[in-house]
Amino acid sequence: MTTITALDDLVTALPVGVVITDPDIIASYRQDRAFDPDAGTAMAVVRATSTADVQAAVRWCAANNVPIIPRGAGTGLSGGATAVDGGIVLTTEKMRDITVDPITRSAICQPGLLNAEVKAAVKEHGLWYPPDPSSFEICSIGGNAATNAGGLCCVKYGVTSDYVLGMEVVLADGRAVRLGGARLKDTAGLSLTKLFVGSEGTLGIITEVTLRLLPPQAAASTVVGSFASVHAASKAVLEITSTIRPAMLEFMDKVAINAVEDQLKMGLDRTAGALLVAQSDAPGAAAAAEVEIIEAAFTRCGATEVFATDDPDEGEAFTAARRYAIPAIEKIGPLLLEDVGVPLHKLPDLIDGIEAIAANRDVLISVIAHAGDGNTHPLIVHDPNDADETARANLAFGEVMDLAIALGGTITGEHGVGRLKKGWLPDQLGADVIELTQRIKDTLDPQGILNPGTML
Amino acid sequence: MTTITALDDLVTALPVGVVITDPDIIASYRQDRAFDPDAGTAMAVVRATSTADVQAAVRWCAANNVPIIPRGAGTGLSGGATAVDGGIVLTTEKMRDITVDPITRSAICQPGLLNAEVKAAVKEHGLWYPPDPSSFEICSIGGNAATNAGGLCCVKYGVTSDYVLGMEVVLADGRAVRLGGARLKDTAGLSLTKLFVGSEGTLGIITEVTLRLLPPQAAASTVVGSFASVHAASKAVLEITSTIRPAMLEFMDKVAINAVEDQLKMGLDRTAGALLVAQSDAPGAAAAAEVEIIEAAFTRCGATEVFATDDPDEGEAFTAARRYAIPAIEKIGPLLLEDVGVPLHKLPDLIDGIEAIAANRDVLISVIAHAGDGNTHPLIVHDPNDADETARANLAFGEVMDLAIALGGTITGEHGVGRLKKGWLPDQLGADVIELTQRIKDTLDPQGILNPGTML
């Protein structure tokens, strides 16, 4: 077979051990955390150690018309790193260098470094990299950039795109180009850096990012509120965000509260209909003022219990509880994980609508949310061995996205479109914007070898 | 002539008064504030009143292969709104609606509204739109988006791109598309919104922007420092930005200080080599702490005079003085206005190098800067009636950009490339990125009718 012979060329072109053909290892790179059942099997995995390795792999794929699937830590939830039959999976997990420049408050990172490792490395210089996906301990900075990942502090500090000042990216023809750089202001030419952030590996492979850093975050004060109903909690969210910018404003529904409490036994109110966890990181006395505003909003909106603390460890326990919601609900059963967002005032409509979808399809849907920016994660629990329930869960999965679109929202706030949501992208963007997107894709990747089947 | 006949079709297609053929009015739309001497003369000016007007004009231009030059308030400093012979100038100055949504903290604006008017409209709802070009009282929000405009508070709050959540844009074929929306987090599809911000009218014409707003800024405290030398001031800039995030950190050299003092007579130290104006808007007691840090840095770096005030009006007087530097220096003579930026630690090298260029070319160059993010405005004074001096000024203009590029910087931090700097763009970006840029331009504007001659 020509491809097998050709693969020898790739093995020869790259350092020893970079091209992996062991079937067991190849199998372990078939799926990301979306566990796409339609995942294929790659002909090889390339564990790139340098930009030159990535270039060689892309050039070989271009010459042989072989699809190449870029992959960071494989923690994606939309199937953006799903292997295709006969393709190459290129993982950047071995590219892990970082250089921090405290004067320009920037860091140059290779893509394989984990988000938590970036945070730790810049902290040594007294600096802070804000974006904090719940998976920050296991997700890579390259994947964060490729999906424009979000997190809990985005409500105040913005998303990954707001922190990527520049990058090196390998194009579909194997050229490596540098975009932007450690300059806070730079409007020379088109904003290509921003275009590549969130492009999910469909336009190029990010081999380095230059990140903007901030001075350290002040210690946060935390306010937790239990509410009898989702509506009461939503009302409190609107009250707070129209007054101040909390550093965090997270939501869990009853199912999530109970699932977390089952695991962590931290004394959450199991009877509550909804829980909000808010934080203020305003400096000094300003934090106390913000905490008061949050407490007052909680109380005014009918909170059944309000607890405030300025002890960072105590606050972190509640944040950790919220972050733990997905694994906790996974104990009930495998999940279809949504990432829909709506303009903030539509949050109650979205949550009501999801409840109706769950009832109609007879499936369990738990909603957790980065409530402060309207970004929710409805979690659809289903038993994959129950074909009927799985079918109903899949219908509900689509209906939740339909609902978000109808409410003027988005099918994905921070996870990316990947393979799982691409069927809904045209409904959100419209035919004209899809055509615009396709034109840009076609001009940057005319052979269509970069992550085919993702996004478009 | 076919074009004259065809122009009748355009007049007919648009509301009465929208298409202007009066030669005097056409002449007044030849140049923006870059006063490009090579400006052409349009065949007509379209004063669009709606997106439909813009679409009709673009469709007519596409059908007749006529260049269309989009224009906001005409305050651009790079010649991005320079008329071309036989083209159409499309001005959005009559499109001035704004709707503020306090709950989602966003505003939907038409492009013709001035930046100051946007600020005022959202202030009525207790909100704040941060980007503040020095020209904020006369520049339009559409132009701000098209150039990715900056300003004085960017050092802490970022640039226009950080505040544009969505837009409506008319494409080269006359279709109007909506990109993004009032969603703080949305990673569905490519980041086209960010691509169009800063594209200087070369990819489409922005007919509406959705802006992210912040709660009001706390009252700022101001610290002003006089320094014997530019080096001492640069050192203070580095000390401050490696410790805190000032809300403003502006720089004026001796020429600028004296030019401003000539006009405003506010008692600035005329003997000083450099002046820094810093602000802290940290809430409550935190401001006092930041002011102390700034004062200490000024003193440690050898400031000859340090003045601090928490009186907002007094502080605003110094900010206004800094903003007034360009008009004040213009009294000495017409300016070639640079907008070069460098990574922060290269600021002293840049300023030294500019001094050497000025001496070598025997021209007066005054430097003012948004020092906190390394974005400088060297102002090259020249007498346009002195051909030799003008030639030397033009050589210096290019050499300053060459220097910025050599120092790892940018030819434009916030004004855009326009026509005046496009010759240097390839030197900054490199041939590969220019080719990438050209491919995107060609695929979105295959006829090349959108602002030809700008950027590329």
Describe the structure.
- Two copies of one chain form a homodimer.
- Among the domains of chain A are: 90 residues, Uridine Diphospho-n-acetylenolpyruvylglucosamine Reductase, domain 2, CATH 3.30.43.10; 115 residues, Uridine Diphospho-n-acetylenolpyruvylglucosamine Reductase, domain 3, CATH 3.30.465; 113 residues, 2-Layer Sandwich (Alpha-Beta Plaits), CATH 3.30.70.2190.
- In chain A, helix 8 runs antiparallel to helix 10 and helix 13 packs antiparallel against helix 14.
- The two termini of chain A are 30 Å apart.
- In chain A, a hairpin with a 4-residue loop joins strand 15 and strand 16.
- By secondary structure, the first copy, chain A, is α+β, with helices and mostly antiparallel strands.
- Chain A is built from 16 helices and 16 strands.
- Chains A and B meet through strand 8, helix 7, helix 10, helix 15 and helix 16 of A and strand 8, helix 7, helix 10, helix 15 and helix 16 of B.
